[in-house]
Design goal:
With 91 residues, this protein is α+β, with helices and mostly antiparallel strands. The chain contains 2 helices and 4 strands.
Length: 91
C-alpha cells in the first residue's frame, strides 16, 4: 500500500448468474470480496475482468462497464444500485 493509501491496486469484476452479470464492481481483494458477496447475493461465480490497476482507473472501468451493460439491456445489473458505481451518501 502506498503513502496514505495512494497507489493501492484494484481489479474490476462481475458476479455472473446463468451467463449474465448480476453485479459489476471493483476491489483490492477479490478473494475477500467474493466471500463477502457469497453471504447475501445469488450468483454462480465471480469473474475478474481486469488486471490490477490504480483505484482511479478501476473506477473508470467500472463506470464504463456499467454504462455498456445498461446500453445492452436498458437497466443496471440486479445488485448494482447506482449508475456510476459510487456509493452515494444522502446526508
Amino acid at each position: 500500500m502506498g503513502f496514505f493509501g495512494f497507489g493501492k491496486k484494484k481489479v474490476t469484476y462481475k458476479l455472473v448468474k446463468n451467463g449474465r452479470a448480476n453485479y459489476i464492481g471493483t476491489t483490492n481483494s477479490p478473494y475477500r470480496r467474493n466471500a463477502e458477496h457469497s453471504k447475501n447475493k445469488d450468483y454462480d461465480y465471480m469473474e475478474v475482468t481486469s488486471g490490477r490497476v490504480s483505484g482511479r482507473e478501476a473506477g473508470r472501468r467500472e463506470k464504463r462497464n456499467l454504462k455498456s451493460y445498461r446500453r445492452a439491456t436498458g437497466r443496471n445489473p440486479k445488485y448494482n444500485k447506482t449508475f456510476n458505481g459510487k456509493f452515494n451518501r444522502w446526508f
